[in-house]
Each structure stands twice: as structure tokens, then as C-alpha cells.
Amino acid sequence: MTVKKFYFIISILLVSVLLVNCSNETEQAAEPGLLLGFSQIGTESAWRIGNTRDIEEAAENKGINLMLENANQKQENQIAAIRRFIAYQVDVIAFSPIVEDGWDNVLEEAKSAGIPVILVDRDISTEKEGLTSCLIGADFYKEGFMAGEYLVRKADSLGLEHVNIVEITGTTNSTPMRQRQAGFMDAIAGDERMTVMESIDGDFLKSRGAENMRYLLETYGEDIDVVYSHNDEMTLGALPEIENAGFVPGKDIIIISIDGGQEAIDVLKKGKINCVVECTPKLGKILMETAVKLKAGESVQAVIHPEEQIFSDEMDTSKISPRGY
Ligand code: GZL
User: Fold this and answer.
1) pLDDT tens digits along 210-228
2) How far apart are CA 69 and CA 45, in angstroms?
3) Is the separation of the CB atoms in 225 and 167 below 8 Å?
4) Potential cystine with 90: which of 35, 64, 132, 142 (Cβ 3.0-4.6 Å)?
5) Residue 303 phi/psi, 5° resolution?
6) Is the pLDDT of residue 13 over 70?
7) Is the minimum distance from the CB of 176 to ligand 1 under 6 angstroms?
8) Average pLDDT, the chain
9) Is the CB of 206 under 6 A from ligand 1?
10) Domain residues of the chain, as ranges?
11) Domain 140-279 - what CATH class?
């Protein structure tokens, strides 16, 4: 055997040993056999689509088997999906409840089946104990409060003596709708300049944002000083209606929105939205880590809130980095 041939064989052996090690490391990173059932609300907004994508990517990165079902905005579809997960005997169930009420029966069934349940994004209201193990989602009250605090600062900077507000809310009885409204109202409470002329449900949908804005403009016209919208989708639906009515959004009417998706941030940079409160959809990594802990019988935090920030015309918006959703 020549020296050259000897070194060639050694190098082949070394490479194959390395490859075997790498594949073992990948398998070690994977969570052997963890099956997570996730019921997602639907595809109503860029936020929701980004949330779904992030959860899918996080499951793949963690080596978790994900059964993701899209409920197309219907609670009955979420309940049916949870029942399928129970029948399938998944290790952990997670879901983003479209509204807060109506979950007791199906969550009792999950509890009886010994399957832990993680709430993602939104919360439920129940009198019963122990139906869920953890809530992973934004502090919506704080988001609303930050929006209200921004408006107080904006009114001060403009020297406004009275501020007429219209509110386009998210889905009635959903956690983000209830808490974004409560936080905003608490932040402006006691400020005698502030008047909320009307609150109207836009269901987090772009089409409903447009429809509601048309109605509000026909009803209140130039009396409107501020639009407080519970998500970017409805805001983006409302803006063309404001322009069609002859007003300049961001100047004639102050526009405050929540989510912080790329499209709204681009409009903020153009000055047509004044403030966007961030609501990150990137909950996938913490969801997977929590599911692994629950399957292993470990305790987890009852509530996990991600850090969130505010973007507004008070800052150099050109420095806002790409949003990823
Ligand atoms: C908030 C989420 C809301 C978003 C909307 O965490 O529940 O639902 O603000 C989405 O864009 O439709």
C-alpha cells in the first residue's frame, strides 16, 4: 500500500466518524417522540400568520412532532381539534382561544385524559381550577396602557385642549380586546381632554377595519381626532377610508395601532401611523421549551409574558429593524 493510499483511507475513516457524531448530536437535540397538538385560531392577520410560522419553525428546530390545526376563526373547530388531540393521546395540548368563555367541558376532558394544556397568546375565563398549566402570551393590558400613555404625550406635545377618540376593537370577549381596551382607558382616565366617542368591534379583520372606519367617518367626520385600533390589520383597512374622506392620517387624525408587523411599521415610517405598540407573535421557542418541561413532569411558570416595546413618531423610525412578520 502506498503512503498516499494509506492517508486517503485514514481521511475517509475520520470523516465518517465525524458524520456519525453529528447525526447523533441532532438526534440528541430532538425531543424523542414528543407529540404536541396545537389549535390555531386562523389566518386573520399578519400577526397570526407570523405566529403560526414561528411555532412550526420552533417545533422543527426542537425535533418536536407538531399536529397543528387551523380553526378558521371558529371556537367549535378549536373544541373539535382539542378532542381529536385527546383521542390521539398527544403528550401536550396547546391552543390560542379565540374567545375567553366556553372551554370548561373540553378542558375537563383533557384533564381527565392526563394531558397538560398550554394557553398560547390568549387566555380563558373559568371558575374551575387546574384546567391549564401555563399561559404564554403578551401583557395586553400593558400594550393598551402604553398606547394611552402615548396619546397623553402626543396631546401635550400638540397642545390639544380636547381629544375625540374612536376605538376599533378586536374580537369581542377575546383577551387582547378586553385588556387592550382596559389598559388604554385606564391610561387616559382622569385626563379631561379625552373623550371616547364610540368603540366598535372590528374582529381583528382588515375588511371590518375599513367598514367600521367608513361608518365612523360618516357619523363623526372631522370631529375625530384619534383612531385607536387594536391591531394593524384593522388599522391598514381604515387608512384608505380616512384618505378617501379627505383627511391625512397621521396629521389630521392621530393613528394608534398594535401588533408591530412590517407593513404597519413601513406605514409608520411614512408618517401615516403615529404609534405602533409591539405585540410579538414569536412565542414558538418558549412554547416548545414549556411543552418539554410538562412532558417531563417538571413545573412551569403560570404566566410567561414576552418583553415588548413601542414604536412611534417620537423616535427615529428609520432605525427600526426588519420585523419578521
Ligand atoms: C394578539 C393576538 C391578536 C393580534 C391580532 O396576541 O391575539 O390576534 O393582535 C390577531 O392581529 O388577530
Assistant:
1) 999 999 999 999 999 999 9
2) 17
3) no
4) 35
5) -135, 130
6) no
7) yes
8) 93
9) no
10) 33-138+281-308, 140-279
11) alpha beta
Neighbouring residues of 310: CB distance < 8 A, sequence distance ≥ 6: 146, 147, 150, 275, 276, 277, 278
Residue type, 325: Y
Whole-number pLDDT of residue 131 = 98
Q: Measured between alpha carbons, how far is residue 318 from residues 72, 266, 311, 312 in Å?
A: 36, 9, 11, 11
Per-residue pLDDT at 19: 43
Q: Does the beta carbon of 122 lie inside 6 Å of ligand 1?
A: yes
- Atom of ligand 1 lying closest to residue 204 CA: 12
Q: Exposed/middle/buried for 20, CB within 10 Å: 0-12, 13-18, 19+?
A: exposed
The fraction of the chain above a pLDDT of 90, given in percent, is: 90
Q: Is the pLDDT of residue 28 over 60?
A: no
Cβ(121) to ligand 1 under 6 A?
Answer: yes
Task: Please tell me if the CB atom of residue 325 comes closer than 6 angstroms to any atom of ligand 1.
Answer: no
Instruction: Please tell me the distance between residue 204's alpha carbon and the centre of ligand 1 in angstroms.
Output: 7
Q: Atom 6 in ligand 1: which residue has the minimum CA distance?
A: 121
38 in ligand 1 pocket by Cβ < 6 Å? no
Q: Quick check: do 33-138+281-308 and 140-279 share a fold? A: yes
Cβ-contact 59, 35 below 8 angstroms:
no
Q: 244: closest CA among 276, 269, 221?
A: 221
What class has domain 33-138+281-308? alpha beta
If you measure from the C-alpha of residue 47 to the centroid of ligand 1, how many angstroms do you get, rounded to a whole number? 6
191 CA → ligand 1 middle, Å: 28
**What is the reported pTM?**
0.90
Cα of 20 vs centre of ligand 1, distance in Å, is 44
pLDDT band, very low/low/confident/very high, at 75 (cuts 50, 70, 90): very high
